[in-house]
Amino acid sequence: MGLDTNQKLLADYNDVFAxxxxxxxxxxxxVIKEEGLTNAKDRSIYKADGKYHEQERDVxxxxxxxxxxxxxxxxxxxxxxDAFMPARVISYxxxxxxxxxxxxxxxxxxxxxxxxxxxxxxxxxxxxxxxxQGKNLYDILDIPEDFKPYVNDYRINLVEVAxxxxxxxxxxxxxxxxxxxxxxxxxLSEEFPKSNIPINHVDEMQKLLGTLANDERLSxxxxxxxxxxxxxxxxxxxxxxxRTINIGVEQERAxxxxxxxxxxxxEKQLSVLKAENAEMEKRIKELERSQ
Length: 291
Known about the structure:
By secondary structure, this protein is of the alpha/beta class. It has helices at 2-11, 14-26, 85-105, 137-140, 166-169, 176-187, 202-212, 224-229, 237-290, and strands spanning 37-39, 43-48, 51-56, 59-65, 68-78, 119-125, 157-160.
């Protein structure tokens, strides 16, 4: 989806990625350092029914120190509820563990230890209503009671972004703070979030706003030249909000002008119709007289 794509553009920045993890997993404590993050392959291959298939994560990164991998993190963006999200996450995570096993087998592992590093996936849900689908494997399985003790459960790390409290949103240090504020305000039917804090990734932010509002013009609030010219001063959400107001005013003027034009066209059509009716009545009367 377009929303997924534009959110991925923003979350792929290390400062945003680390900030999301630190606030939502570690309560704002700076556990993940952005300099320790490196991009991972978002695509993986699996075999099913004798055929090979491709699956793709939204954003994923390795985390490590001194060239030793400590963990693998993935972030998934959900605009809609997915009944089988736990199964999807298991598939994503399993492919990373499988890759580690292959590396150990082929002697390509960075670690001298024979242990694997953990895989952690965070699911960001942006809906205006609470997530009502399963949050763990048990929720989506129909398990006979006798089998249950032998079936391992698997819980997903799901965050309802639109329901984050203000005190949590304030802990964000990256541009994701504006995203969280937008969705919270949207759920509460409040106005566009205004802030004087400079935006670090302006183009990605306005592309995201354009997708959220389903208005392509918002994706081009500021040109690349304007963004570059105003880089030193800094661009804030207030600046973008001002541009959205201007666009709204321009649209209203355009709508008014269009309405006037349509009214004039209708009036002309009505005049033509009246003239035709009058001509028709005249001919009918003449025909009546001739008979």
